[in-house]
User: Fold these one by one.
Assistant:
Number 1:
Amino acid sequence: MKYMDPFNSKFNAADLRLKPEGDLITRHLSDMDDMYHDREAADELLEENPLIYRYYNVEVPEERGHLAHCVSMVFPGDVGGEYFMTKGHFHEIEDTAEIYYTIQGRGKMLMQTPAPESRVETVDMLPGNISYVPPLWAHRTINTGVQPLVFLAVYPGEAGHEYGIIEEKGFKKILVEEDGEPVLKDNPEYPD
Ligand code: PAN
Ligand code: ZN
């Protein structure tokens, strides 16, 4: 392994930007509209095509020994009652874990084990919470609040991201707002 020089990144809470910016990824509704279960509501909101989330990947080599890290922010909003959320993924190298540290906002992380068990758990994401994603669990971040949900994530450099399974099947549960509260419900489209 080669030496790499130590460095800082700085997150500015006032403008929600990271410096140096690294690799900035933005996800608008059009990047994930078929992940929401209310097709009509998604189509209506597509005219506006809101920014759902963005994340800054600090540039470190994607290899074993390094710790990839990134600051993400999921904006507040919903599609037919289903909160704005990340796409969600498994790690390509399945036995790699991850730590999320919530900086600001309010939300939940939805996690699920691989089929056929497909066991679902959620943990609260509140400022100061350190959330552990154990190896094997798919994870999606959901903003249930009115401010951007901002968090730092740290994971092994070699982990990689597998989006296909979630794109195809979704999660077994969805998080929707009912009477102003988040309620976890069965995903009606989840295959048996
Ligand atoms: C996070 C996520 C980030 C964006 O850094 O990659 O929040 O979510 P999606 O990758 O699901 O679009 C992470 O879990 N990295 O492994
Ligand atoms: Zn991850």
Number 2:
Amino acid sequence: MTDVLRPDQRTAPAGRRRGWPPRLDKIAFGGDYNAEQWPPEVWSQDRQLMRQAGVTVATVGVFSWALLEPEPGTYDFAWLDEVIDGLHEAGVRVCLATPTAAPPAWLAARHPESLPVTRDGVRLGIGARESFCPNSVHYRAAAVNIAQQLAYRYGEHPALALWHIGNEFGSHVGACYCAVCATMFIEWLQAAYSDLAELNDAWGTTFWGQRYGAWNEITPPHPAPMGVNPAQQLDYRRFSSDSHLACFIAERDAVRAITDAAPITTNLMVTACQNLDYWRWAPELDVVSNNHYLTAEAQSSYLGMSMSADVARGLSGGTPWLLMETSTSAVNWQPRNIAKVPGELRRNILTNIARGADGAMFFQWRASRFGAEKFHSAMLPQSGTRGRIWNEVVALGAELARLDEVRGTTVAADVALVWDWQSWWALELEYRPSADLGYHERVDAFYEALWRDHRTTDVVSPLGDLATYPLVVVPSLYLTTAEAASNLRLYVEGGGRLVVSYFSGIVDAHDTVHDGPYPGALRDVLGLWIDEFHPLRKDESVELDGGTAGRIWSESIIVDGAEVISRFTTGPDAGGPAVTRHRLGSGEAWYVATALDVAGLRALIAGALPTSALSPAPTGATTGAVAASDDLEVVRRAGADASYLFLINHGSESASVNASGIDLLTGRAHDSSVPVAAGDVVVLRERS
Ligand code: GAL
């Protein structure tokens, strides 16, 4: 196998990205501008209101293919000329989207085979968006063509700041199962494996007599009478992610061949989209951009916003990235679309800026009156300029302008969290030891524990550079390659503190169990082995000495070099190890064998952190005295000349932090203690 997990494909090659768009020379603030939904009379009002709100950039054209190319090879750019020229005159930069997420009806009419097919064999229709198979030659050629036409027409336009290819690749149609994809899958496999014997071996096809005697016998993982080979499913996910990436690259390269004036991106959905392996995508983007929408009903929904921002920064290798889309208030697609409370929009956006975004944009500028998204909030909502949201948007635009000096600075992280799409895929295939195992569940719990301790987290790939972090957490890295295991081991030997949760290090890239006993990939580094998994019943919990409790998981651990820090006192493994520590080289590898709650994880992390990282406390507080509630978000961005402490109080109590400097939002100077009222935000330029 040559094509799946090569280390050089998992991290961004240095210097390859062109980086932040030079023409976005202020903090980017704006949104998707679907001007085509409105008569031209509205456009001048839009421009005037954009100026009023401090909008610096607008994304145009995202779904406008049918208007730009009403018939194949016939173009109408007049309306877009007017929109782009108008924005330019108004001093608003343009993020120009290729409209290829919404193929025109003529494509499906002429080439019905360009429509995607679901796993159940249903060919999807038109009338929505993303109605294309990523491997359709007809789609690909037409998409590249319209991208080229846009590049010829607008490539050197002075307003053009950034190219935005397609939209949220793979979000609705993660994988297509049409006949073309079936053939392309075989070609992908032929490139990935040296011969059929290697594939049979990697897929473990002696199981259930699945051995293939010829390449053309292999199919996509169609529904079958029983669970389909997990290695086949994983390769189909890789193939599908690569297929979408090939669409992006084809358009990107077509644009790049015509014009080099602006960087090129596409909007990722880093914590919401399971379908694409963004560690492979990120190096292909000039600048990383991310879409994140709150899970509005979740308690502390802001945690998801913070985590998404940290993953985006991780993909960006720590360089400035762009929040391409979020909502000003409610969305329209959740079961109950809860509106944001006053001040929540401001906190959400400043969370992203704190965590390394140099811009924040929305779906969308003006709320649609028709179509599926008319109940979605916007910068200019259905209530127009009379409502609360408009006032909050205008105030936010003014505040972002005050933060301009923060641009280009980088986030100072305290710890790292290992995140991996392939492990997410593999862990959530069928026939796992418990239906309660979930990748996001553990990642979210560890992330929250770190967040509530005011520790800023970098998100890294399993093959990422870990050396600088005093602590690295590894939640449920079920799929752990030998390369990843060796990366973790080197980190510990070199003095790092590693905290690994249960169900990590179990299988390789093909869902084959590493040589037993569990956890084969991490046995040496953790200094233990597992005799048997003992998943818990629904709602069952087990107690640990020290007073914490765990859910979901228990297992019988035999230590082999590790020391026992804490034992189960109840449940199937009562008396056995629950938390262990293995000293290795000059570092330590900790292991936790159950789903501790956030409080339990906070205690565990406090134990695992080196004393030097415990006090003075992390990034957030210069003195270590974060006299703050655990609803206070504390993040520092630092540059050559100054550092900026973002204090975002998501709680209902006021908080304070020992620090000094000037609040860029109010101009107020603080000498030693910085109060942050409930719901408020302070951005302190710190006194050096
Ligand atoms: C995004 C998408 C936008 C809009 C938005 C609604 O996923 O890119 O076009 O549909 O969701 O929340």
